[in-house]
Amino acid sequence: QVELVESGGGLVQAGGSLRLSCAASGRTFSTYAMGWFRQAPGKEREFVGAINFSGVIKYYADSVKGRFTVSRDNAKNTVYLLMNSLKSEDTAVYYCAARSSGTSQQKSDYDYWGQGTQVTVSS
Asked: 3-class DSSP state for residue 38?
């Protein structure tokens, strides 16, 4: 079992940047694939990005490619989401998720979820 806690959300202007962090408590964090998802009010939770256990393989949703970067520091049991060139449509609650096998873009494939952190982009 692993607990995930997101942080770093806030209010930013369009075009700005924000870095989200997800701290994990678990002895086997370095073996987990990690994903980021987001959900706006009235909408389904959607895939944002994912990273494999070593950080070598990464996937991104088309809507964030070239703007967002997923990274991880296994020594710190932490995964990051760096968001650049933010747009108003990026406004959502962002969730960190973990699974004990390979990377996935499907919500149902993830075993553990954080409580989310709010990102609001003005304009």
From this structure: strand
Tokens representing residue 71 in the block: 């990274």
Spell out the SS3 assignment of 12-73. Answer: EECCCCEEEEEEEECCCHHHCEEEEEEECCCCCCEEEEEECCCCCCEEECCCCCCCEEEEEE
Express each pLDDT in 53-110 by its tens digit.
Answer: 999 999 999 999 999 999 999 999 999 999 999 999 999 999 999 998 888 899 999 9
What φ, ψ does residue 109 adopt, rounded to 5°? Answer: -80, -10
- Pull the structure tokens for residue 28: 């086997």
State the virtual CA torsion across 88, 39, 7, 78 in degrees, nearest 10.
Answer: -120
